[in-house]
Amino acid sequence: MPLQIDDESGEVPVIYPEENKNYITLGVIDNGIAHIKYLDPWIKRVHTRFLKKDTSTTHGTFVSGIALYGDKLENREMVKNEGFYLLDATVLSATTIEEDDLLQNIALAIKENHKKVKIWNLSLSVKIAIEEDTFSDFGVVLDHLQKTYGVLIFKSGGNGGNFMKKLPKGKLYHGSDSLLSIVVGAINDERYASNYSRIGLGPKGTIKPDLASYGGELLLGDNGEMIMKGVKSFSRNGNIASSSGTSFATARISSLATIIYQNICKDFKDFSDFNPTFLKALIIHSAKNTDRNLSMEEIGYGIPATSTEILSYLKNENIKIFNGVMEKNKEIDLDASFFEFKKDMKVKITLVYDTEFDYLQKGEYIKSDIKIKDISEAGRNLTRKFEGILARNKKIELYSDNDIKKNYTLIVEKLN
């Protein structure tokens, strides 16, 4: 799918950093960000292996524009945007690149910047469909980088053109099977999955994509031409422009995570309080299907809430959040007052955890998983979500097949 960016008319007000305010930096791993008036005040640093003349900046600029101005440009509240800094991590030049070189460039960008940049937007794909039983090299590398450097990557699911030939959708692209990454699909204005948005599940039935957001639409016209109903951002010359793709849905969700962390971060020097498992759990917990009742293969857990709504969970007495480390077993006790002393209660439960991986895939890729006894025990997955009835006298029991240490976040919400 070649990138099509169409110039549009109009302007939005430029936002600038406030003095004496601390900002988080979002790493944009892409083909560069143009220093246009909308973005220049926020570009904190540039990490590149290429000369300026060899860099195209088309895609990275569009992604960054959505990350900072997405709601304003669409005149619709999806994320509740706030300003934050950008790291321009240019890993692609204007010419073609081999997969190994791309992975090496991504790894270097994260390795050299992970102390200051914890959240990364990776709206790039290697255009090979994922497999049923084996995790791709790209996916494994992304898991390894997140495990090694304590970062969180938001990865686009990838675009496909099968709708132009009236064929079923293709599977997610390589890299979108990374289990620690949040992988994002696209929906259109009618709240259906976009025609081009590739589908899961991941290898071994893992839940991929994780989430979806607005990415615009591409349609097959009556005369066999492609019609674009795009989302708005900026072209590299600084005009408002429109385009469509899972890349741009991904930028909304990496932006959402950056804003949430910016509002709860207490250590803007070393980011010692960054907890990717906790952030993932908050966002996944908030996600809902659209009124079109889409499948998990299309949108994963659904469309996340705004940053304001998600931040309100931290002060909501109907929501209990447990963060910890577990080995073989963990019992979580909810006091009777949480149940308002009733015998049972309808709840929504979200579990997210990390684990060790068998990178060579000789055995199970997820070396140690967590299940929730009697509630969520199917498959091996790093995310679990459940709605149902919980009895007051019943503890929530997390259990695992071995005692490898795993960081987890469990969110329990009372539903009326």
TrEMBL record:
InterPro entries: Peptidase_S8/S53_dom, Peptidase_S8/S53_dom_sf, Y4bN_pept_dom. CDD domains: Peptidases_S8_Subtilisin_like_2. One of its GO terms (biological process) is proteolysis. It comes from the Bacteria. It holds the Pfam family Peptidase_S8. Signal peptide: none annotated. GO terms for molecular function: serine-type endopeptidase activity. Residues 24-302 form the Peptidase S8/S53 domain. This is Peptidase S8/S53 domain-containing protein. It comes from Fusobacterium nucleatum subsp. polymorphum.
